[in-house]
Write a structure and sequence with these properties.
homodimer; about 350 residues; alpha/beta; ten-stranded mixed sheet; six-stranded parallel sheet; 16 strands; globular; nucleotide binding (chains A, B)
Chain lengths: ~350, ~350
């Protein structure tokens, strides 16, 4: 691979998740981590040391300085959500491609400004939902689209929970109203909503209705909630997301002819292998003593972790724009926008007495 | 075991499910199938032949004749739901113990009349929810009650679906408004609701809210629906039940310290072995690349199918009353009543624009 096809990344903000993504950039065949910026040079240096970044990595003490670096093609932005609007737009205006952490914006109005800025400046936009890039997700998508093995989608049940602990629940960025006002809905819920869209082949549901159990922290940020989504064809999804329950990442979908169960859909139990349980065309056996078919466990091996596949896909698109005159791929901002639209509808449902809110 | 400790059963009604339960009675160490009644003697004879019942089985052409048989201790009633009120009460008045198919009644008012008749006549009442008698359910209950491995209950997600097919959806007893007016909610939903109660240690939820997706057949019977249940301590359950989706029997519960997944909770895939997947005290590993602990699959072997354990438990209680002067066990009608209360609340939620309905 020629050096010019290597996409050179900058990272603005040294969040915990940046450790994982910077590692992915250095593992990725068509990407390089070129520079890291924090609000002080000392913080950027500490991050570089803690993560054993190569000494060639350029370090900056301001985000602006990184955005001005002409050697950078693309910027990964793991900043708190409320800062995404200004920094993602600033990145796009510097003609740098935008890899943006989720939740991408505090609402779809702000997201649209970010996406418009990317479009106007001809740069690729992608959010950091890693799991959809895992090879397992391709196997899941093939199953969902198979009329014989899965059929018409009927039900989705998903959840993403983890126990934040007391310090987390009061002090983490994800529960600060001025930083991540969407709380668990924007964090864990983002993945559940994406799973619902994924199973529905990215068709938007018609209505979102919040479940009547949101829990808020003292600052008024939601730390546990759920919702149901209803599609025009009758398919229904329910999900829960929470900082108050044991680590759970279930994704189950039922069609007319089959069903799928995955219990680690956001982050597989281990890096190099992930499994899914599928069942098709089973029925009660004679006298309903058992089932005619049992689920089969399908294991998907992978040499690279899912976040590397994400960086690789993004870098391939960036390379196409940079070196081959291609246009930015609209699929990714479109999916991001659908996810954010559903979040907005659920937030509206919270404030409208848990009534169903149309998603559009 | 002395002959007198053998509980002698009669069956009124030759429903498909009676095949499975009559087999269970003949496999059960403390029960005997003494007699079968249908609306005609020919039907009873056909049932006896089709199921290879021993020639000693007494056959009746009316239900009344069976209830008058002094050799019968207990009666299993697999009749359509709308007939439960009169026949369960008639059975109790004949001082015969009542093993009643689910849904037990069309509403809790009728159920209360049945339970009262059993109490007044000193006979045991139990519904036919088989899965709670499987040895696996004891393992599940132990897990749920373990503060270290499971902790405080937070979420329950369950479903029971199967594809009825066109003929079933118009003609089966379970979709006739004058026979089984509760449709899939009383049939498949019954099990989901029981699972929710089971995970909550049989504490009633405070509110039941129907999901906004019920589907009705031409006769107005619900053939697909769902609901959320909300407990006073914040625990939340969501479930779907349907005659329109592929066979699925998922039961997942999440506590503060652990989670459980079972995908065949109503009828295990096979008779002699059933499994559950449990996980406790897991967390993200370093950099959230994977999980610190993975779920473990626990296999529960059993020599007898779950319906035999149900008949055995019921017969043990009947034997205690009959031969040892014990009182009927109130646990079983209490659990039945809680299940029916939730069904009634969901039906009320359907008719009240999917508003939450208090369960009491």
């Amino acid at each position: 691979m020629s050096p010019s096809s290597q996409v050179r990344f900058g990272i603005i903000g040294c969040a915990e998740i940046a450790r994982k993504v910077s590692r992915a950039m250095n593992l990725c065949p068509n990407a390089t981590l070129h520079a890291v910026a924090s609000r002080t040079l000392a913080k950027a240096q500490a991050f570089a040391t803690a993560n054993s970044l190569p000494p060639t990595t350029v370090l900056y003490g301001t985000y602006e300085a990184l955005l001005d670096d002409p050697d950078i093609d693309a910027v990964y932005i793991p900043l708190p959500t409320s800062l995404h609007l200004s920094w993602a737009i600033a990145t796009a205006r510097k003609k740098k491609h935008v890899l943006l952490e989720k939740p991408c914006a505090v609402n779809v109005t702000e997201l649209d400004q970010i996406i418009s800025a990317c479009e106007e400046n001809g740069v690729q936009f992608m959010d950091c939902t890693m799991w959809v890039h895992h090879p397992r997700s391709r196997v899941m998508a093939d199953f969902f689209s198979d009329p014989k093995r899965f059929g018409q989608l009927k039900f989705i049940r998903t959840c993403f929970n983890y126990c934040g602990g007391n310090d987390f629940l009061e002090n983490d960025i994800r529960v600060q109203p001025d930083l991540d006002p969407l709380g668990t809905l924007g964090d864990a819920g983002w993945y559940c909503i994406r799973a619902c869209l994924f199973a529905a082949n990215y068709q938007l549901p018609k209505f979102a209705t919040a479940l009547r159990n949101p829990v808020y922290n003292n600052a008024g940020v939601v730390i546990s909630c759920g919702a149901s989504l209803l599609w025009e064809n009758g398919a229904v999804a329910t999900f829960n997301c929470s900082f108050l329950a044991h680590l759970t990442m279930d994704f189950a979908a039922v069609g007319t002819n089959g069903s799928l169960n995955v219990t680690d859909f956001v982050i597989p139990y281990e890096e190099k292998s992930a499994s899914l349980s599928i069942l098709s065309n089973s029925n009660f056996d004679e006298m309903s003593l058992g089932w005619t078919e049992k689920p089969t466990e399908q294991v998907v091996k992978t040499e690279l972790p899912q976040e590397v596949f994400m960086v690789k896909e993004f870098s391939t698109l960036v390379n196409g724009i940079k070196n081959h005159g291609l246009s930015p791929e609209k699929k990714w901002p479109t999916i991001t926008r659908k996810t954010q639209l559903i979040i907005d509808a659920i937030v509206a449902s919270f404030s409208r007495g848990f009534e169903p809110v149309e998603v559009y």
